[in-house]
Amino acid sequence: MSRTGFRRRPSRTTSLLAVAGLAAGLLLVAPQPASAANLVTNPGFETAGTDGMPHCWEKSGWGDNDFTFATVADSHSGTKAMKVTLTRRADGDRKALITESTDCAPVVGVGKQYDLGLWYRTTTPDAAITLFRHDTTAGWQYWTDLKTLDMAADWTRATVRTPAVPAGTDRITWGVSVYGTGSATTDDYTMEQVSDPVPPAECTGTAKECADGRWTVLPTQNPVRSMHSVVLKNGKVLLIAGSGNSEENFEAGTFTSAVYDPANGTYKVIPTPKDMFCAGHVQLSDGRVLVMSGNKAFPVAGGHGYEGYKDSYVFDPDTETYSRTNDMNDGHWYPSATELGNGDIISFGGLREDSTGSVTAERWSAAEQKWLPLWQVNQTWSYWGLYPSMILMQDGRLFYSGSHVFGNGTPGTGSAIYDYDANTTTAVPGLRNKDERDQSASVLLPPAQDQKVLTLGGGNIDSNPDAGRLTDIIDLKAADPVYTAGPPIPQGTVDLGDGKVAQTGDQGKMYVSAVLLPDGKVLETGGGLHNRADPVFEASIFDPATSAFDPVAADPEARGYHSSAFLLPDGRVMATGDNPGNGTWNHNVSIYTPPYLLKGTRPTITSVIDSEWVYGDTQRITVDRPIVKAELIRPAAVTHSSDPNQRFVDLPLSVDGDNVDLNVTSNPDLAPPGWYMLFAVDANGVPSVAKWVHLQGPSALAADTASAHVHSFADSLEGKVAEPGRKRSSQKVGTTVSGCDRHYGGVGVCVPTVFPDGVRRTTASRCAWLKKNDYGRLKVNGKDDPLGLDPSRDGLACGARDLVRR
């Protein structure tokens, strides 16, 4: 591990087997009666082949290591076994795999699952069952690591069940990877197709509800104007408002938060020490919430813009109180916040105390429990904008997806891969309409092992066009990742001020919320067509397996600017907030019940033997009936369509009746330390209520005998590489960064600097739009009237005299 805490990427090497992915999810189970004969040719290595390898087996692996392959007499049965040994390892692995050929590689069916089995002996804890697949278009590529094998001096049986075979796959190959010094000896491989015992689901709602889910508006309103939502380790929800974008609250020093308890539907208002309006936040590895920066000052017409302070706080879910940390090095209004694999937090962007853009990267040390001084943090002196979506990759680098808040994206392609250790930024191509991704949503698709990111929707508050329907998907496992076009977001209805009408043309939405669901799909909901105006009523569920959207029931409440949607531990989705340009606030709270909760009884996790988990370990739970998969979902910490830490990590299973052993990833960059919701899911996609488990951080990592089994992905980048630029203090940012003209109304009111298409550049047309959107009385601040709303110059915009013959 490097001094900074990142795991260093492997150097670029040529693999003996084409690889293009990191571990996807799988299911480990006890062997079931075979539904077919053994699909492995020469499973016991008894038939000789070429190059010193048995028939239908080949040498494979990559990286800098010393190794031997040997057919040995120390067998489980018969006369031969395969032994793979590493005597020195810098990186990479070695493995004996079924030969990639039509004669040897087993044929598989799309959507089917297969039970794999083998006998093994190991002298290293760093060995794993590894699976590759043949894509009919892209060829052979790495698919998943199935299970880390426990050390075993005697012959030991390992059985695994593959995930459902992805579309486009016709064959697979597999074997055991050795990625630490020592050896693995294997014998007697088996592969059998699993039958399809899927019991019929029972609809417990109306036919429409069972297809589309249902929304319920809760009878009790949210007591605070919360724009930040954090699901806590105890299942409660921290709702942070600060001033709530209210000038009156700010001037009075009235700053609030609330803790919502989904179990009984109650709220508790929490004293809040600072205006955390538009702060950054993230769960620390111990379950506390780190809150960074916030609003130091609202804009002043003709003067400064928003200002961010340096203060930082920690919220403790146990005591429900805030305590102050040391200060950050700079102010950051609208900062990013991403947890790294060692528990550190890295943060970029936002506005400084003087309202210019911050170019200072900040790093919270998990070991020292403080923000590190500037000289200890790598700096590119780049301006990443506001709430840049920075997603941790499986090798410790960060992927800037192109999602951000306010205005345009970063220069160049709009997305990039940032390597902290090398302190370089490499442009990533393919993101369409990169400058219309304001308050789009980006999410690491389930499972996190697949390393695919979906970016959807967005607009631009500077030019204020109709928000778009575009979605783009990138596979970060590829050697040179490129965004490719995804399916458009389904259209719904939009309220342009005269009631809901169907969306037309290319109309989509910004202010998008994207929520990972325990059945492995993604709910997208909420949104608006323009800058703080024209709510869109539409929701759909994206299936990563088919790359398609399924329209579902829409939230009846407007959910635009300052709205959030997030997963609750019981599998429902909660949606809060809406702060249109007229300054009002929607205190109603909506709950979405997805279709999977209307399919009859749900499985139950009856016990979790140990809630403290470590990387590479096996943990046991018990369930009340059969399940087909389990996963960890990181609880939400969402604001402004942004939650870069949201992730769904598949857990391999090993089943013995009601006892289920869960195999935990050995890679902390795949599942950063902290508290997670553990779901068990049955064959119909129905999830249990989550149990909370704690995946431990740096102390657990110190016990690793080798770095995690991480392949060399995104390692042939062809985009432009940027080294650190010249040292500077800030980036100049205009005072209209929020898309609001502060010459009119109070600070909580947003009169757009650019009106939507169809609004003519006349006083009458603009005033009619403002009236239709309930702006009410608007005082003119100062003597300037840049939008021509006060031609009578009486200090009141859109007054009766302003509309005479205009």
Automatic annotation (TrEMBL):
Annotated SUPFAM superfamilies: E set domains, Galactose oxidase, central domain
CDD domains: E_set_GO_C
Domain Galactose oxidase-like Early set: 602-694
Gene3D superfamilies named among the record's database cross-references: Galactose oxidase/kelch, beta-propeller, Galactose-binding domain-like, Immunoglobulins
Domain Glyoxal oxidase N-terminal: 257-583
Coiled coil: none
Signal sequence, renumbered to the chain: 1-36
Name used for this protein in its record: DUF1929 domain-containing protein
Organism the protein comes from: Streptomyces siamensis
